[in-house]
Specification:
94 residues, mainly alpha, DNA polymerase, domain 1, 55% helix
């Protein structure tokens, strides 16, 4: 079979942005005063959806609140990452 293209997941494959997601979550946790460190993040946060995470943090909240918190956290992430955004070493050549 001849390959016609490839599909890549951006996070961690094309760009090395994991630490910026973590930093954004840390800022978010300070603002809303819930416990978070690298172990909690690794063991509890990775792989969960925003809906799961925000309900875990805030309890039963509306879809609108989930969307608002998600946008806030995403803005934190984008602000932190835009200064250092770059592709993984070698990905352009690949």
């Amino acid at each position: 079979m001849k390959h016609k293209g490839f599909i890549f997941d951006m996070d961690g494959v094309v760009v090395d942005n994991h630490k910026f997601h973590f930093k954004a979550w840390m800022e978010f946790s300070k603002k809303y005063k819930f416990p978070l460190d690298s172990n909690i993040y690794r063991d509890t946060y990775n792989g969960k959806t925003n809906a799961d995470l925000f309900r875990m943090i805030f309890g039963e909240i509306s879809l609108e609140e989930i969307q608002n918190y998600g946008a806030e956290k995403e803005n934190l992430y984008q602000t932190l990452y835009k200064q250092e955004m770059k592709p993984h070493l070698g990905i352009i050549e690949f």
